[in-house]
Amino acid sequence: MQDDLSYDAWTTMLGQAGVALGASEAHGLLAGLACAGTLDCGAAIAALGASEDDGELRDALEGVCELLTQALAETGVGLEPLLPDDGLPSVQRSRALTEWCSGFVTGFHWHDRGREASEYPEIAAEALADIGDLAKARGTVGEADLTEIVEYLRVAVQLIYEEVAD
Q1: Is 103:26 a contact under the CB 8 Å cutoff?
Q2: 61-108 pLDDT, tens digit each
Q3: If you write DSSP's letter for every residue of 28-78 in order, what string do you get?
Q4: pTM for this prediction
Q5: Cβ-based neighbours of 119, under 8 Å, separated by 6 or more
Q6: Annotated domain spans of the chain
Q7: Are 153 and 145 in contact (CB under 8 A)?
Q8: Per CATH, is 7-165 categorized as 1.20.120.740?
Q9: 165: DSSP letter
Q10: Which of 68, 67, 66, 44 is nearest to 57 (CA)?
Q11: Alpha-carbon separation of residue 94 from 1, 22, 52, 98, 166 (angstroms)
């Protein structure tokens, strides 16, 4: 399970652990923690609101945390936001993208909620503001626009990671 980053596997894992967040929002939250430089299994469990006694979840999250960190540490744009399968309607995928962005912002600010955006490098602050705006978006977008937004997110998240996590 720990290496299976599919939307369905995440949904099952989180449901069994009693986590109230959906798969996309939880993945975004962990990505935000990683970009802030604070991703470890303990922080992930706390941020997800899960029980520290859940050994199966802990094992899965250890693998997920490692994979997220590796994807961000690669020199390319390796992190893909976790969204439902491409075969589902864009309304579901758009909603999941908004949830991913919301989770990312929450995870990024998990440990330093009082820090102002102006305290980050300008490019990271702008990318973070854009992701925050996407988290507040309502409505749906077509598949082509969704693809463009996901590609923008991949670049924005990578920039934030490179500017802040190191």
Answers
A1: yes
A2: 888 888 888 889 886 666 889 999 888 888 889 999 999 999 999 999
A3: HHHHHHHHTT---HHHHHHHHT--TT-HHHHHHHHHHHHHHHHHHHSSS--
A4: 0.91
A5: none
A6: 7-165
A7: no
A8: yes
A9: I
A10: 44
A11: 26, 14, 32, 6, 31
